[in-house]
Amino acid sequence: MFSSNSEREAAIQTYGWTPVPHDLDLLLKQHSEAPSGAAAPIISVSSIPLPPSELAKKVHEYAKKELPVETYNHCLRVYYFGQAILQHVFPSWKTDTFDEMYFLTCLLHDIGTTDKNITSTLMSFEFAGALLSHTLLTSLSSPPPQTENITESIIRHQDIGTEGTQTRISALTQLATIYDNMGLREELVARGTIEEVVGKWPRRGWSGCFARTLRRENGLKGWSNSRRLGENAFPEGVENNKLMAPYDAAT
């Protein structure tokens, strides 16, 4: 793919392969750019436009067609919660390519959980979804270093741990999916931002919906990657998402 080391290094910089701590608490401690003690600002959904490229539009159309509305809404919430975290905590991460790459990752990160895809493979849904996404993005002429970072981030979006490193795209995807799924680190996003995002893309009982998906995945695949987060503890943690409970009840 690369004809020289300089070309390889340029791709690493352009397509967001900068390593950051795998441990999200350590990441926030060492890399947060938020002023000490500053509360997260309320960020309007209208202030964060979706990436306008043809690639983004085509993948968005694909996701809207393939995903159940509950999962599609989750993907958009993850995008906006991630953007809110980015603006508040990691503003220097923004590059010309970051928003589009993060948007594509959000749209595709749960593609492996659809009724069709979860039963069509023995692989864990993250890995199967990553392969589907790699094929899709390649067919749409996404640059290989971009496609590969998105693919790796989808594989690792439930790879919660404390050792090693990951890319910035992967780290932000983890922070935002955990925020929407379990309500952890609630200080990262303002309550007003939550209300705007949920108002635009309602949860529709997402906590129960995703917990059922996890139990289905674990029942079908005794080796599933989701089990490493706790076969019962993980879905129960999703069901007991206290931060998002009022919004689940409202839909």
Automatic annotation (TrEMBL):
<dbReference type="InterPro" id="IPR003607">
    <property type="entry name" value="HD/PDEase_dom"/>
</dbReference>
<dbReference type="InterPro" id="IPR017771">
    <property type="entry name" value="Cyanamide_hydratase_HD"/>
</dbReference>
<protein>
    <recommendedName>
        <fullName>HD domain-containing protein</fullName>
    </recommendedName>
</protein>
<feature type="domain" description="HD">
    <location>
        <begin position="71"/>
        <end position="182"/>
    </location>
</feature>
<dbReference type="InterPro" id="IPR006674">
    <property type="entry name" value="HD_domain"/>
</dbReference>
